């Protein structure tokens, strides 16, 4: 799966400019990085992508078992920031990472990630 001529990376750059969230990625449902603005130090980007795909899979499986419908988002809150995951169609997912210093409200993050996921889905399906 390609970056659709750089369109995915442009979506991440626009997302960062619009929200102030400086770390985000688009990953495939099988855990591969499709586009990323994640920092290059401190962790393995490929491991983060694989874990994000696993978390989404587990969330979807749990929702299916409980008959809750489609998974929209996953919010992970930590002492040093948050991680939001959202499906972006059948082939991709969006990952956004905030730091404690960014001080962005959870509702704003969830809303922004939802919009980004819709844009990614449209680009990949188009």
Going by helix content, strand content and strand pairing, the class is: alpha+beta
CATH hierarchy, class: Alpha Beta
CATH superfamily: Dynein light chain 2a, cytoplasmic
The topology string of helices and strands comes to: HEEHEEEH
Helix share of residues? 40-55%
Q: What is the terminal separation in angstroms?
A: 13 Å
Cα radius of gyration in angstroms = 14 Å
Order of strands in the sheet with most strands:
2-1-5-4-3
Number of helices: 3
Task: Quote the beta fraction.
Answer: 15-25%
The total of beta strands comes to 5
**Largest sheet, strands/sense/barrel:** 5 strands, antiparallel
Give the oligomeric state: single chain
The structural domain count equals: 1
Here the CATH topology equals Beta-Lactamase
Mean pLDDT: 90
Give the second-level CATH assignment, the architecture. 2-Layer Sandwich
Overall 3D form: globular
Low-confidence stretches: none
How would you explain this protein's 3D organization?
Helix 1 runs antiparallel to helix 3 (106-125). The protein has a single domain, classed as Dynein light chain 2a, cytoplasmic (Beta-Lactamase, 2-Layer Sandwich). The relative contact order is 0.19. The two termini are 13 Å apart. It has a five-stranded antiparallel beta sheet with strand order 2-1-5-4-3, with helices on both faces. It has three helices and five strands, in the order H-E-E-H-E-E-E-H. By secondary structure, it is an alpha+beta fold.
